[in-house]
Amino acid sequence: MYAFIWRHLPGNLAAKLAGTLLLLVLAGLALWYGVFPWLEPRVALDEVTVG
Amino acid sequence: MRAILRTIGELSITLGVVLLLFCAYLLWGTSAYTERHQRILQRQLEAEQAAKPLGKVELGGAVALIRIPRLGASYKYAIVEGVEDEHLRQGPGHYPGSAQPGEVGNFVVSGHRTTYAAPFNRIDELKKGDPIVVDAREARYTYQVTGTKIVEPTEVDVIEPVPGHPGRKAEKAVITLSTCHPEYSARQRLIVFGTLSKTEERDVI
Prior knowledge:
By secondary structure, chain A is an all-alpha fold. Chain A contains two helices and no strands.
């Protein structure tokens, strides 16, 4: 999977590294601001009220 | 075959990293949200002091400031009205319908233990006699801790006007704090009880 992505990143080694970094940052942002806020209320690990 | 195995391995490692990142989000990402809303709520309290008629606060509004000296001189949170998820994310929440600060009856406040800035993370350290200071609009109410208890999530007796005695009419002003127990779990609830010991009217400026 990762080898596939690496092969399809354009440019020389430096460009490929930059592309990798960009993809990692994008994935991280999507998780942090999109997936995690959606997921958090669904895992009840900090329920504080009674009743 | 090898390609399939390699892909499964890569996916597993990725999932592990994502879960680690999610833990980091729960601990730090959610705190940023609470701190942002705490600033808004605390400004709201400052602006409204002595300016607004007393009485009930609408859902999502700021009720009072809570300070617990045992947990540090800078320990200070704005209590928000309401105990739905959206309220508790902003700070400790006051049960609508339970007593107002200082009022005869039970002033019930719930707060997160591990996520969303974890305002009630260390309330298990409270000891008998420790002060819990509630700065409401009209006065400063100081409650004294009378005890702590670990209960099941279904034991709603603790939020009755007289905790533990459903139906009995309240004669004292008491406070009840609740949070989850043990840490990182939703299995039980940690409850801290207190009784009003001092009321200082706020000087009107």
